[in-house]
Amino acid sequence: MAITIHVDVVSAEQSIFSGVAEFISAPAAGGEVGIHPRHAPFITRMKPGTVRVKVPDQDEEELFFVSGGILEVQPQVITVLADTALRGKDLDEAKAMDAKRRAEEALRDRSAAMDYARAESELAEAVAQIRAIQHIRKQGGH
User: Fold this and answer.
1) Is 10 within 8 Å of 81 (Cβ atoms)?
2) What angle do the packed helices 116-138 and 93-108 form, to 10 degrees?
3) How confident is the model at residue 18, as a pLDDT?
4) What is the overall mean pLDDT for the chain?
5) Torsion-angle region of residue 14: left (phi > 0), alpha (psi -120 to 50) or beta?
6) Predicted pLDDT at 113
7) Pairing relation of β-strands 5-11 and 77-82?
């Protein structure tokens, strides 16, 4: 039997996942972090990207897109508190590509109503969603 830790993935709107995991990977502000059970406690900000959760006795990892938020690791539980979180299978590639295009246009046209920092943030989020979709496709569409 594998050693596990409880993981909660929540957004402002709802709980997305609650269960045990053998491993979790998350897009921390300073770079990708991998966490196994018995990891030292810490807390960090997350950037937009994919959270991967390895559930025991399941071949495919659970994938979640997060737009940013906080990652907290405690001895008995890992909490992913995301600004926005979606299950990987719920991502919409057409919407992500459209958001990327709009953000790129706003960055080119600095006189646009949208400010530059917001456009950069929206572009980073759209690109992270597209990467998550591509990662899901590599796993076979799950």
Assistant:
1) yes
2) 150
3) 96
4) 82
5) beta
6) 54
7) parallel
Q: Global pTM?
A: 0.68
Higher pLDDT, 96 or 142: 96
Question: What length does the chain have?
Answer: 142
Whether the Cβ atoms of residue 86 and residue 17 lie closer than 8 Å to each other:
no
Residue 42 near residue 63, CB atoms below 8 Å:
no
Contact 26, 42 (CB under 8 A): no
In this structure, are residues 43 and 29 in contact, taking their beta carbons and an 8 Å threshold?
A: no
Cβ neighbours of 72 (radius 10 Å): 14
HEC-encoded secondary structure of 26-78: EEECCEEEEECCCCCCEEEEECCEEEEEECCCCCCCEEEEECCEEEEECCCEE
Which residue type does 7 have? V
Q: Which amino acid is at 74?
A: Q
